[in-house]
Amino acid sequence: MNFASDNAAAIAPQILDAIGKVNSGSALGYGNDAVTRQVERKLSDLFERDVAVFLVSTGTGANALSIAHLAPPWGAVLGHRDAHIMTSECGAPEFFGGGLKLIGLAGDDGRISPAELKRALEREEWGGPHHISPSVLSLTQATEAGTVYSVADTAALAAIAHARGMTVQMDGARFANAVARLGAPPAEITWKAGVDVLAFGATKGGAMAAEVVIFFDPARAAGMPERRKRGGHLVSKHRFIAAQIDAFVTDGLWLTLARHANAMADRLAAGLRAKGLAPVWPVEANLVFAMLPAEVHKRLQAAGASYYPMHRDTAPRAGSSRPDDVLVRLVTSFATTTEEVDAFVAVVGG
Amino acid sequence: MNFASDNAAAIAPQILDAIGKVNSGSALGYGNDAVTRQVERKLSDLFERDVAVFLVSTGTGANALSIAHLAPPWGAVLGHRDAHIMTSECGAPEFFGGGLKLIGLAGDDGRISPAELKRALEREEWGGPHHISPSVLSLTQATEAGTVYSVADTAALAAIAHARGMTVQMDGARFANAVARLGAPPAEITWKAGVDVLAFGATKGGAMAAEVVIFFDPARAAGMPERRKRGGHLVSKHRFIAAQIDAFVTDGLWLTLARHANAMADRLAAGLRAKGLAPVWPVEANLVFAMLPAEVHKRLQAAGASYYPMHRDTAPRAGSSRPDDVLVRLVTSFATTTEEVDAFVAVVGG
Amino acid sequence: MNFASDNAAAIAPQILDAIGKVNSGSALGYGNDAVTRQVERKLSDLFERDVAVFLVSTGTGANALSIAHLAPPWGAVLGHRDAHIMTSECGAPEFFGGGLKLIGLAGDDGRISPAELKRALEREEWGGPHHISPSVLSLTQATEAGTVYSVADTAALAAIAHARGMTVQMDGARFANAVARLGAPPAEITWKAGVDVLAFGATKGGAMAAEVVIFFDPARAAGMPERRKRGGHLVSKHRFIAAQIDAFVTDGLWLTLARHANAMADRLAAGLRAKGLAPVWPVEANLVFAMLPAEVHKRLQAAGASYYPMHRDTAPRAGSSRPDDVLVRLVTSFATTTEEVDAFVAVVGG
Amino acid sequence: MNFASDNAAAIAPQILDAIGKVNSGSALGYGNDAVTRQVERKLSDLFERDVAVFLVSTGTGANALSIAHLAPPWGAVLGHRDAHIMTSECGAPEFFGGGLKLIGLAGDDGRISPAELKRALEREEWGGPHHISPSVLSLTQATEAGTVYSVADTAALAAIAHARGMTVQMDGARFANAVARLGAPPAEITWKAGVDVLAFGATKGGAMAAEVVIFFDPARAAGMPERRKRGGHLVSKHRFIAAQIDAFVTDGLWLTLARHANAMADRLAAGLRAKGLAPVWPVEANLVFAMLPAEVHKRLQAAGASYYPMHRDTAPRAGSSRPDDVLVRLVTSFATTTEEVDAFVAVVGG
């Protein structure tokens, strides 16, 4: 019963196999190999335009490098206050960005609303030399609350950002889950809706350690090779990170895996709902948030269930009135089984 | 009728004279001169202990250098959300601090309360490796709202910070005004109450361009000479910046000037109150905030009064109900005259 | 005939197997797993003391993080002018170190001599506030020239550095090759000789993407978890990077692989020598540098041999008198075969 | 007999007077005042084109801000190895530039030659992703050796830099001395010869603390206001720094002062030459370098002469054969008197 994180899962067998398949002979390092070339082509096909592609090993690296590339050091990066870049990257975007500033916006269900973005931008304190300047809008897709921005949501937010001269970065650590839910082509969800740069995650979706920074306008990527290298994020035996992404996007594996994770989350949500514990936020990806009575939490712990309670100041926002209730995050993955889900729900039921 | 800022004032004559008095012969640069030695002694006397002293030309430099010296790049600096470092230094602390993060706290009347500080620290999300760590508490004395932290306030806040392993920096751009109001010895207000480093401002108080970073524990200043130099903040003809501070703290000039500025603010507040426009925050230093009806604002503008309206999102906090009301900041200085104040109030009266 | 780089080699089968073996079930991310614990123990055993261990995916990351951790932003890092950190990391140490400075020292055969280090330190321009301060000595073991520092060399250099208050970092991207050649215990070559922090490389030695920053004094590692995280270098599915290092150091695999690579270099050197092309620097690890007549270079290219010519300004140092000669670097690896070596030598022979 | 530095001199009386003259009434801070506007116009007139102007208090600030603005963090800044930015700013350009790298070039008489610049650029190791990219050529005018780049020198060097896509920054801490010597219009010496940005110094020339970063193409200055502010280099009571520059460039004061300083250096050089101690480098500005026999050095010290010996590794370059000889730097200023010079020479004569 592991619902701690999708990065607690193993490597999807197809992806590990892909690593093994390219493990023979020699290949030039640092991306000068045939597998990397092939991945670049496949990603351009997938997104229906020529894209510039930078593979890195971590999601934090992908976010920090892409944000730093889009914003000047005196730029403000606006995102949801619960976004990963805001809370869980130990200041990586600020470090890579030379001291830029992240501004956390409120928003229901983990999503920024156009109204909230407008409100933030209408404050009078933006602009040099005394104030930092709004530079990047960062959207997390799917969000940390397990919700998804619709194509229309994204387009509306991106339009506001672009009108202000900002660019739009998407933290897609769980992009696959969002695409699987939305059922729209990746191009629709990203550049056609105004996204300029996507940090496309594969690790949580089933890879070992592989993320891709995708520039939909390759001209914007000038200098990015140097930025990645001096960040220590240019992998030397590059064919092996390329092989992971290659397998991930081949024959729709990424969506197959994501659909399964999402289905497990839906099943878990339904099970909890049946026990009177409706999820506190809509379940649209592979995360379920539930407000557990203390005794249920204890019972699950005793049964060996693995998951994380959320920090206290999020709980009130989840609408809980009982002080002992525990807000918990339950994450499913490509490897979650129906048995695990059902066992968990059974323990909840007591 | 100039109430735009205390840095719109000129140089106090005693300070300009002091510059002229040391303007003969030669003196080694970069602080290796007799005037600098004398200032160091006087500041140690003033604060009743041996202090390490670093003179710089700007308040932003003093804040950024001191904060960067106290916090690691993965540190969080907690301060009031309206503090100068938060809103008006274009990210200087973040830049000097290698990408550290400023966390703005709410608080009535421009002051952080111990309860709010505790609440912020009790969130569960602090600490490595994923989260930044609370490192510095920055208190603005006097605050941007024109209020003052009492000695007890400061001690209570500093105790919470120290208990958490944090250090306490004080942005004292208007420290003179606070001391003049509190009537307590500078030592009581600072290190005896738990302040570790003070950015002691003289520019707003009457100097040309002179601020001092004061380390109450000189051992903590190791590396600060290098930090100042590589920040471009080591003035070469150093005797002239030293002469400014020397004059400022000699014979209590700094307090004489600050008392006048404060008295002018009090007079202005009384005048406004008499016209039914009570200041929105307590007037404890040299700043008066008033919610002006639109017609009064227009009349003042027409009469040539100089002052700044505040940004919109502060207004609601000031409790205004009429949408056309304008929240304005009125700043007095050592150079403000009773005639200016009375003329302003007269125009307000219509 | 691939002699381009040891990172053009594949993954050693034992290491790929090890990844596969831990690929089942779930494990907490970010190093909170059993494999990581085991690696920490094995590395402490290997180095004969409790060490603090930080796994990362790239050698540039390992070097930059460790150097930045040891030097203040106003520190100077002294190393050989041809060292990887000096020439081939696109400024990563400078970026991670907040603008620190690398100082390249001359030295025969890729090695810094104690005399050269002393000479550099005796210059009068060190020290604050105007000058940067010598902070870190970085030794590359094995060097970029394919030579090795003896235990006595390392101890002599480290003693000079420590006497000056500096720390000693070792770039051990090819540490295995050096240990295999020296035949001394890793502890003798590192901390017993004065090395404070080792960037212990496994990637060039046979791993997929795995390097370890090892602090011989764990107390010195305070803050390093945050530094790694905000650098984007904390791998989420950590068991898989741990498994690589685990396999690498188990049953002496790392030395077995390195001995093979070294033996191939020796065979190549002997072959070239027999053809009248003695290596220009001593062959002590897995790199052979030869000055090829232009026609030999052309013949090798035509035969499909893969290797890199060196940049022009190194050639004169190699003592070549003929302008058309090409200085080339030939790198062997765990995967190099005697057939490849012999075929190469045969083409050289014409 | 003070020849320690031109920043050991006082403030030229005309400049101190100018500060006093604007010291009445109020003026908006941060450059929004009439004196600043006037200085901008005068500098545009002086340089015969519309320039963008940024006043700061220190030469290190002016250099670091301008270089950081021109180079990306992965840029290389090429300059003479004895330039102030290389040796005496404690890494300020590296800090402001996010970890960029300064590359010191050799060159006779403190000047880079076109041949040396070409040689450096022809190395094969430039360029991403592994290597940093040449971005800025920094020329010091007058040089640290007291020599001057002719207009033709500057044009030749700038042409090489521009052909490589680099920009040209000029450290003009002693620009006045160079212009006074060259007798050419400032425009000829700077932008007409290919200089893109000039750090125009006034402090060493007679101001209290005032330097100007001048962008000859104002479009290139986008973002510079923010950069200056977040560096803490935007002076609040801006009229007083503006008044210094205004006086400096009015009625040719800067050149009058510089001509005097240069004449004093010429007189000193002639006096030394007459005593058999010809300066080791050509005397073209206000610096004289002489190789003093130990007994002469002692006699001067005993007589109270103030000057700095140079660091040891420069001495051999100066061609000295006697181990006890001391290479000394003698700096004249607008305040140096013929009596001081003659007294110094008399003591040398014994």
CATH architecture of the largest domain in chain A: 3-Layer(aba) Sandwich
CATH superfamily of the largest domain in chain A: Type I PLP-dependent aspartate aminotransferase-like (Major domain)
Structural class category of chain A:
alpha/beta
Shape of chain A: globular
The count of domains of chain A is 2
Tally of contiguous helical segments of chain A:
14
Q: Please identify the oligomeric state.
A: homotetramer
Instruction: Tell me about the largest β-sheet of chain A.
Output: 7 strands, mixed
Question: How would you describe this protein?
Answer:
The structure is a homotetramer of 350-residue chains. Chain A has 2 domains: 12-252, Type I PLP-dependent aspartate aminotransferase-like (Major domain) (Aspartate Aminotransferase, domain 2), CATH 3.40.640.10; 254-348, Alpha-Beta Complex (Aspartate Aminotransferase, domain 1). The first copy, chain A, has a 7-stranded mixed sheet with strand order 1-7-6-5-4-2-3, with helices on both faces. Chain A is built from 14 helices and 10 strands. Helix content of chain A is 40%, strand content 15%. Chain A has 350 residues and is an alpha/beta fold. The mean pLDDT of chain A is 96. In chain A, strand 4, helix 7 (151-163) and strand 5 (167-172) form a beta-alpha-beta unit. Chains in contact: A-B, A-C, A-D, B-C, B-D, C-D. Chains A and C meet through helix 1, helix 3, helix 5 and helix 10 of A and helix 1, helix 3, helix 5 and helix 10 of C.
